[in-house]
């Protein structure tokens, strides 16, 4: 940021109508100087004419004969370049169901911040377990151990779930961008056809109440009480042409430039279709004058935060939008942060490599009051995030862990063997504090894992823990008590790495990841117990290694269960054997040791469904949920007590 003042634009409530620009094509419009990043300063468009003019200008440098960026081969959404770490999507809260006449102790899903729920494939409210799998929402009654209801979601691909009382909000997503055969077969369109549909379900009546479709990609969601906030990212819908037997690249490029200058502002704004109790409506989700944007942007994506009170109707979600990309969401009880590392920026139409420093923009929204969030500040840090655990707010200070370096954005025809070498990577922890509309840098510590990248991060109170990896695994301990002077206090080098770190109390950490050889070749799932009570000298107390296996908990922390009352630790594992066995590995943290308690294996009839994905504690039982059904085992000894298959 280099001391540049960041001015906060006010993102206000959007309405379903839209102000349509009367602007006509202006061939004299010159594109602005190409800049991949700049001051993160949000300002609002003052009119629809101003909006479409600015959006055209911002997109102009990226227009090619094949539409936006690149050439005839483009990646589907979500297939971005390697960001230097395990991609991790958040998922939510699953509280074990309990008999109404006798409340049993039960576990909750592993969420980042206490009191801030996150969507997942399993949720409970203490009386029932709610799950989604193979296009169906199912309810399981814990007291009777029976499946009591099913809601068929049809062809929609349900991916995540939030629950409040007798309401469930189901996130369904369309497929990744598909080749659309509207042009000659040898020149298909690469227009994204996917979208997000939010479905509100009445769990008592077992029926769908309403649904809201948007043409954006689902990013993530958070829930506090009965209020859910959903972040979606949309892209402009422009009818690009492509070279074919009758049009060469020069002609296609010329036509695409004309298309850009003729498209109305509605082509950039996300659309919606709402179905509430059979009444249908559709339109533009936001008004162009109610959209904020950074001073420098590509005009290629828009982030929208939707707010829903799950006890009522969906409506259009009272949207708040900014012109930006984003793929990481982190939330506290008062703030929602959306981070954009610019990796979704369109590829520049160049035949020579362009190197640029990598940076991440961070936008802070105030969610402390009822209603839609309000954008309050933005900032920027060097490098890229691993996932939401790279962000943590403590005492008004945002701590951010990033890996820096540069990336090469290059011509799509350049052979891989002539790509310029990448400079060594390095990781940092930067502290930011809100100053007016700016997330201003307070302090920074670097030098973490030079030549490596971050594999896991955990901030606990005034301490931070960062794991980097290339051949060995340095676990760094950081003292963040003075945000202006964060410092590394200790380092532990061992083979392998931890992809997820979890606090275990009494100055201990649990790490889940992979063991590896001294040359860095991974060899199977590894669970480590660390002693970090003395930050100057972190130690590994115990290790469990399951060769030739992996665990979903490495990239999705919601697959991780730790029950501190007796030290029960459960993660799903998949072996690399010929039959690809699936099971839940049960360990017990016993003082300074990790004890193997055995595995939970589903009946042979369920082997084709991928095995258990979530395990929850209910009283003295472990409930394991998969796409095939629910299995109940004794917590001590793991004896099977029930198997509840899901009917197809």
Automatic annotation (TrEMBL):
Superkingdom of the source species: Bacteria
InterPro entries in the cross-refs: Beta_propeller_containing, Quino_amine_DH_bsu
Pfam families: Beta_propel
Sequence segments annotated as region (Disordered): 91-116
Ranges of biased composition (kind: Polar residues): 100-112
Name of the featured protein: Beta propeller domain-containing protein
UniProt source species: Lentzea albida
